[in-house]
């Protein structure tokens, strides 16, 4: 049995982390049995980030590495219908979602004032009074340092929204008239795409990036289509 450790459901999505939602969507698309255990503090994870899994007594972290290990351990057919170019395309889509658009989501949740007000009350509202004053600024400071080191944190909000528009338009163009990024049926790229897009389009948080995403109706239709296939 695969045990999935991730942030608990919040804001109307199964996990407010695009990486956690990506991995659980992958498990469902691949038809793998699993159990979920909620973790409130990512620092308890093996690499200090969620998600991670336990498989055959081993803790495995990072959604991309987990997917690779699962493909080695089980006879998965999720990408079997893709040719070499299709697999390369799927990887490029996943990288765009994981390594760029998801970082923009983090910025507009944790550093932008509008998103921070919503995140702070939800994530830290249950802490005891002294910790409620101390912990949130520390976590936010670490997020700011991380995004600054990565590079995106050095840009203005308007510049980041321009990046977001380019990412969302690229995903719209890559999807085209197909129901899924895998074509007629989902592939591994759909797990990554749904992880971030559901957190922008189905999530109850209201940030500038969430509002921007709503300007792309094909992506909303895609999220609803995949949710109906996998989550109902």
Molecular structure report:
With 232 residues, the protein is α+β, with helices and mostly antiparallel strands. Helices cover 59% and strands 8% of the residues. It has a four-stranded mixed beta sheet with strand order 2-1-3-4, with helices on one face. The two termini are 22 Å apart.
Describe the structure in brief.
The protein is built from nine helices and four strands, in the order βαβββαααααααα. It is an alpha+beta fold and 232 residues long. The longest helix has 27 residues.
Instruction: Sum up the overall morphology in one term.
Output: globular
Tally of DSSP β-strands: 4
Q: What Rg, in angstroms, do the CA atoms define?
A: 17 Å
Average pLDDT, all residues? 95
Please identify the structural class as seen in this structure: alpha+beta
Order of helices and strands: EHEEEHHHHHHHH
Low-confidence stretches: none
The number of helices is: 9
Distance between the termini: 22 Å
Main-sheet strand order equals 2-1-3-4
**Overall helicity:** 55-70%
Q: Characterize the main sheet.
A: 4 strands, mixed
Binned strand content: 5-15%
């Amino acid at each position: 049995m695969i045990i999935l450790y991730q942030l608990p459901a919040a804001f109307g999505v199964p996990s407010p982390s695009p990486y956690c939602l990506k991995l659980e969507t992958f498990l469902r698309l691949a038809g793998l049995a699993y159990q979920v255990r909620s973790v409130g503090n990512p620092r308890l994870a093996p690499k200090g980030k969620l998600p991670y899994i336990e498989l055959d007594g081993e803790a495995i972290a990072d959604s991309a590495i987990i997917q690779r290990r699962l493909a080695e351990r089980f006879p998965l057919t999720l990408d079997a219908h893709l040719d070499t170019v299709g697999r390369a395309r799927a990887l490029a889509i996943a990288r765009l979602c994981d390594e760029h658009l998801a970082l923009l989501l983090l910025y507009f949740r944790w550093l932008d004032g509008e998103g921070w007000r919503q995140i702070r009350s939800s994530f830290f509202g249950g802490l005891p009074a002294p910790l409620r004053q101390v912990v949130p600024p520390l976590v936010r400071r670490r997020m700011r340092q991380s995004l600054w080191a990565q590079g995106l944190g050095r840009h203005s909000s308007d510049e980041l929204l321009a990046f977001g528009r380019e990412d969302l338009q690229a995903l719209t163009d890559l999807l085209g008239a197909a129901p899924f990024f895998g074509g007629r049926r989902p592939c591994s790229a759909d797990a990554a795409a749904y992880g971030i897009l559901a957190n922008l389009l189905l999530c109850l948080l209201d940030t500038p990036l969430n509002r921007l995403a709503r300007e792309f109706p094909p992506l909303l239709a895609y999220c609803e289509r995949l949710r109906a296939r996998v989550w109902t």
